[in-house]
Specification:
153 residues, Rossmann fold, seven-stranded mixed β-sheet, 44% helix, binds flavin mononucleotide
Length: 153
């Protein structure tokens, strides 16, 4: 059994829906051998990351950067995971009112340090909220889980 960890900050109804759909995609009935663990950034620990075979991070963009909660998560898990989780398959989605690039650059700097392996281009969900955003996070969850399930990642 593989373990997929999904860590998202969800400060609004829309972002709760995005996280929910990401988890729903990962738990698709076609997925046989992957268990999905959803945690808020405050709940998620270094041990959760150490146990994971793949990770999806979802963050809002606040003040031109990743949310403070996601930054706190990275600050807590960085050194405990640095040596032992290199190559961890990861994917990122960003919900931004307008932009999202500052968040992408900031997260990618940390990921470069951690040496995790990007398995999908960052999913940038910017502008007025549309239902298509939740479809994209669902697809991302399914993509990651299917790759773990099939031994591709
Ligand atoms: C304090 C604060 C700062 C924000 N700063 C930015 C920002 O710098 N760039 C941006 O694109 N959106 C910004 N936003 C918008 C949020 O990214 C957006 O409200 C959040 O992703 C929730 O999306 P929703 O409105 O669809 O629920 C900010 C929101 C808040 C509350």
């Amino acid at each position: 059994m593989k373990h997929l960890l999904i860590v998202c900050n969800t400060p609004s109804e829309n972002t709760r829906l995005l996280a929910q759909q990401c988890v729903a995609g990962a738990e698709d009935t076609d997925i046989d051998a992957v268990t999905t663990l959803f945690k808020t950034p405050l709940e998620a620990t270094a041990d959760d990351v150490i146990r994971a075979d793949g990770i999806i991070i979802g963050t809002t963009e606040n003040f031109g950067a990743m949310s403070g909660l996601i930054k706190d998560f990275f600050e807590r898990i960085y050194y405990p995971c640095l040596e032992i989780k290199q190559g961890l398959p990861y994917a990122l989605y960003i919900r931004a009112g307008l932009d999202g690039t500052g968040t992408q650059v900031g997260v990618e700097k940390i990921i470069t340090g951690l040496r995790w392996r990007e398995i999908h281009a960052p999913v940038l969900l910017k502008g007025d909220y549309t239902d298509h955003f939740a479809a994209q996070t669902r697809e991302l969850g399914l993509y990651m889980a299917a790759g773990l399930d099939n031994g591709i990642f």
